[in-house]
Design a protein that fits this description.
- The protein is mainly α and 66 residues long.
- It is built from four helices and no strands.
- The longest helix is centred in the first third of the chain and has 14 residues.
Length: 66
């Protein structure tokens, strides 16, 4: 999946996660997907967006994002 295919809300949630967690951003998202618990720094709308992405792009799609 290309980052260009994401909605604005999805791009914003990914960008904020990248900023907060650096090179480990994918691992943080996957951990949140597995547990439903996200670490500090993300608001409820960003968390909801990331949770919806779990169903639409899944791990494989997340791994392809740059």
């Amino acid at each position: 999946m290309n980052i260009c295919e994401l909605t604005t809300n999805q791009k914003n949630a990914i960008d904020k996660t990248k900023k907060l967690f650096g090179e480990y951003w994918r691992e943080e998202i996957k951990k949140g997907w597995r547990t439903g618990v996200y670490r500090w720094g993300l608001d409820s709308e960003e968390i909801a967006t990331l949770q919806r992405m779990r169903k639409t792009i899944g791990n494989k799609g997340l791994d392809t994002l740059k």
